[in-house]
Amino acid sequence: MAIKVDEAPPLQTSGSLKRWVSLRAYGLITSTLFGATTSPLKMRVRFERFGGVSRQKLQRKFPRLLFQDYTIDGLSIESVCAVEAPTRVILYLHGGAFFMGSPSSYRNRAMRLSYRCDAEVFLPAYRLAPEHPYPAALDDALAAWKLVSDLRRDKPLVVAGDSAGGGLSLSLLLRLRDFATVMPHAAVLLSPWTDLTVSGASVDRNHGKDLWFTRKHLETWATYYVHDANPQSPYVSPVFADLSGLPPLLLLAGEDELLLDDTLRVENAARGVEVTVHIGKGMQHDWPLTLPWLEESRLSWLAIRGFIDEHSGGPCVRKR
């Protein structure tokens, strides 16, 4: 069953000037720092400078914030907990087009996710392209899931991710289903990149409305991760997979982003799966994370918290 929910407010909710300035400043910064043909290593450094924050800095402001470190098969995983007694666990796969991002650059976001959703959040430092193309990130996501599901087997488990991490989360769910192993209670995917063939209609339909991405961005960046794999492989581009048998999904996408159809087509492919879709009217890629001060973002986080509350009770789902 697919449930279409559009809880985003009308365009004037955040105040027209504040909203207009926020969206265009976001677009100016991202398009300047992360050009389609800029070196991936240069962009990776910029991403860390732009979003990275030390544990010490966060703990000076939030003394009760707790960090822990884990490793499995050489993979480093950081847990972030902003609440004293979390009631659930979230494995979060960060975005960054498969070649950027780290626990450091997502630490602040993980802290807020922990606080908002009463959860302990695990951030794996999965391997990045182009040095480590497919299937490195997916193998690391699977290893992280094995560690977290074994370590916190007494707590409800949720998988979440944004952008490339959202697509990677969906690929992980397919691997878990196909391996007939423990599945999470639910998954939350923010602006997921699910089609590395870049064939979604919104790539052209939203050209000019998307203030960051162009087709050139997506086509160039996809090559770093896909390398010599088949880009239509369900584990590379899960939008082409049979998505039946998955846990409940919450999908969020911005109305004006190029990746809008990467979300909408997942809904159509998830036959028999409970799917909730939240489209942010006039919003851009990853808006709840990048523009948290907007009313549209606040309502999105309420939707995320409500979805996780609804679906994180009872035992883990086990496929047989």
Structural overview:
Strand 4 (88-93), helix 4 (103-117) and strand 5 (119-124) form a beta-alpha-beta unit. The two termini are 22 Å apart. This protein has one domain (2-8, 15-311): Rossmann fold, CATH 3.40.50.1820. With 320 residues, the protein is an alpha/beta fold. The strands form two sheets. A nine-stranded mixed sheet has the order 1-10-9-8-6-4-5-3-2, with helices on both faces. 41% of the residues lie in helices and 18% in strands. The chain has eleven helices and eleven strands. 48% of the residues are buried. It is globular and about 45 Å long. It has helices at residues 16-33, 40-51, 55-61, 103-117, 136-151, 164-178, 202-205, 215-226, 260-269, 287-290, 295-311; strands at 2-4, 66-72, 75-81, 88-93, 119-124, 157-162, 182-183, 186-190, 249-254, 275-280, 317-318. Helix 2 (40-51) packs across helix 4 and helix 5 (136-151) crosses helix 6 (164-178).
- Ends: how far apart? 22 Å
Task: Just name the CATH architecture.
Answer: 3-Layer(aba) Sandwich
CATH superfamily: Alpha/Beta hydrolase fold, catalytic domain
Poorly predicted sequence stretches spanning 5 or more consecutive residues: 1-14, 314-320
Tally of individual helices: 11
General form: globular
Q: Which fold name corresponds to the CATH topology?
A: Rossmann fold
